[in-house]
Amino acid sequence: MRIVLALFACLSVLLPWPVLAQQEDAPLISSADWSSYKQKFLDASGRIVDDANGNISHSEGQGYGLLLAYLAENRADFDLIWSFTRTELLLRDDRLSAWRWDPAAIPHVTDINNATDGDILIAYALARAGRDWNIPELSAFATLMIKAIAAQTLRQVGERTVIMPGATGFGRSDRDDGPVVNPSYWVFEAFPLFAELDPETDWASVEKDGLDIIGGSMIGPERLPPNWLSLRTSPKPAEGFSPDFGYDALRVPLYLVRAGFTEPDLLEPFAAMENGVPVTDLSSGAVRETLTDKGYLLIPALARCVLRKTAVPDELKKFEPSLYFPSTLQLLGLSWLAEHKEACG
User: Fold this and answer.
1) For residue 199, how many other CB atoms are within 10 A of its CB?
2) For FRET with 58, which of 17, 23, 92, 238 sits at 20 to 30 Å CA-CA?
3) pTM of the model
4) What does the alpha-carbon distance between residue 28 and residue 319 come to, in Å, rounded to a whole number?
């Protein structure tokens, strides 16, 4: 008996505690899923390739790539993506990033304007990595970007603080129907951390006003937000854009769920999408196409999860990369499920 106990004691020192600690600290994106993603979308230079958009790269993709690498706890890949982002996109004088990089063009940056959702994603990923990996340089750069986002893209529209989609081109003086916003640019989970690094900016109001804008933008019998929204008078689809709920706005429920906002009034229209995500012309109600990639289907499944405690189908939990955008959204959804295993089964 003493021999057995001694052996058990030795094994307990050598094996169980490290194993248990590793399980408790397991990455929210598995190494296998991240490996599949990066094999298809991350090139050797550190850029995330949008394979459905002429193989360009953009600040959105770089921000997503940084966030996914952080969630996968892959420091080497994070550093690679950050190196490309810093040297190839952060070319402006105001600490915001140029939004579009084309491998077929010389120079590669073909639009120096920023896309604010990309900047928010980049700054958020840097802030999380800087805090959790104890890298002060990343936290410092994140703070500079957050302050730049506040200075260059936050605007007062009436009593609300809104996020302009870019530093220029969307304001009241830029467009007849301006200001124009994109409801999917409110990456709500980022704002509490932004407030820690930039306490001079009222990020709580950015969050609250964003929720109000999204609630007011759910128009028509379908109660869906348009991709692009004019705030000139009453909220309506912006001029010059298709009046659609589609590829941009479908991120709205994902960002709400990830940030813990589970109000039925906001999520129920998405939870009702049982057979696919309908790209909908909000002016007529016509469905232009129905999106059935797993990355898109997972989003209404998450809405049903938090509203109805409905289990997410096992098939949607299997990651098999397809195109850049739905694959990215699927990994973001799966990482939330990994963190909230008790939410819906």
Assistant:
1) 9
2) 238
3) 0.93
4) 13
What's the CA gap between 237 and 279, in Å, rounded? 14
> Of the listed 50, 73, 88, 117, which one is catalytic?
117
Q: What would the pLDDT profile of 140-173 be if each residue is shown by its tens digit? A: 999 999 999 999 999 999 999 999 999 999 999 9
d(CA 84, CA 44) in angstroms, rounded, equals 10
3-state class (DSSP) for residue 202 = coil
Has 50 been annotated as catalytic? no
| Contact by Cβ (8 Å): 336, 262 | no
- Distance between CA atoms of residues 167 and 94, nearest Å: 10
Annotation says 117 is catalytic: yes
160-163 and 154-157 strand pairing? antiparallel
Residue type at 128? Answer: R
DSSP 8-state assignment for residue 48: B
Name the 3-class secondary structure at 59. helix
What's residue 113's pLDDT? Answer: 96
Predicted local confidence at residue 6, as pLDDT: 40
Distance of alpha carbon 124 from the chain centroid = 10
The tokens for 312 are 């997410």
Give the DSSP letter string of 82-136.
HHHIIIII--STTSPPP-EE-TTSSSSEEE-S--HHHHHHHHHHHHHHHHHTT-H
Catalytic residue among 33, 60, 209, 248: 60
pLDDT at residue 345 in the model = 56
Q: Which residues of the chain have pLDDT under 70?
A: 1-24, 345
Q: What share of the chain is helix, strand, coil (3-state, %, to 5)?
A: 50, 10, 40
Q: Tokens 């295993």: give the residue.
A: 341
Whether residue 280 contacts residue 288, with contact meaning beta carbons closer than 8 Å, is answered with yes
* CA 140/CA 146 separation, integer angstroms: 10
